Amino acid sequence: MRRMWTAEQIRTAEDVLLARTEEGALMRRAAYGVSVRAAELLRERTGGVAGRRVALLVGAGNNGGDALWAGMELRRRGVRVTAVLLAPDRAHPEGLAALRRAGGRALGGTDATAADRAVRAAQLLIDGVVGISGRGALREPAATLVASAAGAQVPILAVDLPSGVDPDTGAVDGPAVTAAATVTFGGAKRVHALAPHRCGPVRLVDIGLGPHLPAADLVVLEATDVAEHWPIPGPSDDKYTQGVVGIAAGSQVYPGAAMLAAGAAVLATSGMVRFAGGAADEVRSRWPEVVAAGSVADSGRTQAWTVGPGIGTGSAGRDTVAAVLERGVPVCLDADAITLLGATPDLAEAASEVPAVLTPHDREFERIAGEVGTDRVAAARRAAARMNATVLLKGNVTVVADPGGRTLVHPSPGAWAATAGSGDVLSGLVGALLAAGLEPWWAAGCAAYLHGVAASLAAAGPVGSEAYGAPIGASALLAAVPDAIRQVRRLAAGHP
């Protein structure tokens, strides 16, 4: 489990550590980590380090100081380093002096032609514009210089975080850095999980901050966490001990939702799946192991339910959701069930009285808790407290929050799951895990993680590399669920 902190939490811990450390020591340690990563990127992209060209975008304050000291370390490796000082009168004096002593060049950002030339000629650009105290979009001349780097296809290594990206929400409201890689210090920040496409691979440099950090603000699950919680049958298990899940989904008009949700539940665990709804015949024909009935009332006992995909928002849909909630067992509410909760206070109250997972996308979220806004973590927490349920806010970065505020984020490895029906697969996974006994927060988090792995595997196909993947439908994602479980278990065991 990877832990993430807010900018304020990091700053507070840094203040404690700085007071106990020799002046400049932490900056030198951090800068050395930046220089090592920069050298690796140069070697990967150009085949060498000595004689290569690196430009530094240097802002005021400590973030710029990190970049300058890193430039000094790179000069020791024979790199040609040019620092573009965006605020020359506020550049870190010791770092600037060290760079110049090592033979690095420095020029003011107001010399637009020279600065642009230095950036475009570089084989790597180090972003030291702003750190975790920065807010808002890049200002000039940094915005123009970052755009020049993008136009010249110069990769950017971000110091701590990509400048122009909010450190706590990952939001961008104007020009901002998109980094090829990021080096951060002491502890991971929220932005690294909430805006992974802006950060690239993130390397954490230990500067001794750990003992001074509070409990993590949010977490990111890893393969070991999911493998530890995923239900795998043991020698004393049978179909009942592994969990019996009910699926109330689809209709004769929308049978696909029923088959996807029920299929996900079948493939997620080795227990039993019961189905209730108008698409019973279609579900039986595709999944003969499912025990199907026409209604919730005619279904047998279950340990949990998934309800909502494709049931409609009319009276029949309301009756179905009400019947499921009357069972009093854990429930995953998705799609039409979420719309019905937003429109029917009695259903929302009934849902608040059972262990529940709600799985809205942004538009469905608005029906129960207002606009998502730029802070997705705050939005998910707000909805979880309001609905007294675990909320899985779907997106390229999925956020899972429970009523107590415990929160995890799952940055998807790709966007392959952005296809019709993939949410039905996710809700089936959640329901199966609830039936197996996982608490709602873990069921939602593990399902989101595995869903992303399955999407990547399906997109990669026989080629075996997501980099050359192809768009997929939800049926392909569903079919990849068993392979995703195998891969998670292999990774957790230390096998690639």
Largest sheet geometry: 9 strands, mixed
Total separate domains: 2
* C-alpha geometry: elongated
Radius of gyration: 26 Å
For the record, the CATH class of the largest domain is Alpha Beta
Rounded to the nearest angstrom, the distance between the terminal CA atoms is 18 Å
Which fold name corresponds to the CATH topology of the largest domain? UDP-N-acetylmuramoyl-L-alanine:D-glutamate ligase
The CATH H-level homologous superfamily of the largest domain: Ribokinase
Q: Give average pLDDT, whole number.
A: 96
The helix tally amounts to 20
As a percent range, the share of helical residues equals 40-55%
What is the second-level CATH architecture of the largest domain? 3-Layer(aba) Sandwich
Spatial strand sequence of the major β-sheet: 13-12-11-14-15-16-17-18-19
What would you call the structural class?
Answer: alpha/beta
**Record field, number of beta strands:** 19
How big a fraction of the residues is strand?
A: 15-25%
In the predicted model, the low-confidence regions spanning at least 5 consecutive residues are none
What does this molecule look like?
This protein has 496 residues and is of the alpha/beta class. It folds into two domains: 2-218, Rossmann fold, CATH 3.40.50; 223-492, UDP-N-acetylmuramoyl-L-alanine:D-glutamate ligase, CATH 3.40.1190.20. 43% of the residues lie in helices and 16% in strands. The protein has a nine-stranded mixed beta sheet with strand order 13-12-11-14-15-16-17-18-19, sandwiched between helices. The two termini are 18 Å apart.
